[in-house]
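INFO batch 0412 | record 1 of 1 | parsing
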Amino acid sequence: MREGHLNILATHTALPPLRHSGPAVERAFERWLGGSDRATRVKGMRILRNAGVEARHSFLTLEEIFTPCGLTEASARYREHAIELGTRAVADALAKAGVKPEELDVLITTSCTGYMIPSVDAYIADALGMRSDLLRLPVTEMGCAAGASALIYAAEMLSGRPGRTAAVLNVEFPSNTMQHGNFSIENIVASALFSDGIACTVLGCEDSPGRATIEDWAMHQVDETTGLLGYHLTDTGLLMNLDPSLPDVIARNLRSATAPMLERNGLRLNDIAHFVIHPGGVKILDRIEAVLSPLGGDVDLARQIMRRYGNMSSSTVVFILDALFRSTPAPGRALMMSFGPGFGAHQVLVRVGAGKPSAPTLRFTGTPHRTRSGTPGSRRS
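INFO prediction complete | emitting tokens
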């Protein structure tokens, strides 16, 4: 067990303004698959209908999502909305936590669905007037695992430093990475699962319990699995690599991945009261639940979030954690896990049940205004 009091002061989740219903997505998906052969069309529609996603959000219309665009245009879209929506999410999360922007010590941002230099955290620091000695860390290549791994980085940076605070922002826009001319099963599965979402978590190293207390954390990489999951950067953007053996690999390694951290805290899997598991997809959740169910565990919250919003990459596990807080959970340990390229399982052990209820997920409304490059911020020193 780690020493000190490292607490989650607030979680905040938000959605881009446009919501696309299941039937509307089906119609757009069917039109897109019209460019493939009949067997692919039949299989593709079956994959979509079995994905377990009822609706999804985006800053793009369905027409824009399913219309080809170049890497330059996709990058410009990402930059505009990452800055605008990311800044608002951090500001709202800090307000929930009672932390002023100029009081923040660490800002970590995660995204695997777009790239920009300077990274989005630099723009957020300027826009919110954060200190000139702010520690910034952009995490861009951890995939879905970054939902947990960024909290681990924040925990390491705050551990043993009383009074320090950190914000972790997850900005994911998978709808902006659509590969229009690729009808591989991997691309169809990715297109059927993924959706856009933004989340922010504020951590503090202090005596105030906040929403929950982080007790320990760990990373586990499975040997010789670098080819199972990832993105390839191509001329048309980011192309998903997704091996069909992934659900079985996760199930086989779940116990060995979690054992070291649990054992050093005197725990076993059946001592965990709440599981906050990143939902890579229905098959992955089914395999994980087959392991947890005999121990009294379930992945109900993960299924619920995926059904409502889709797989929002690194943001998803924070949506699940936020939903756990809002459910007024029974006191106990929660195991937060996210999986990503490497192949890795990243874990955070959290004590929950003593905090106050969280506010609901927010949906950004209106059309985000365009951020003009070169506009100076009022950054405080």
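INFO post-check: Residues 166 and 245 are 36 Å apart (CA to CA).
INFO record closed
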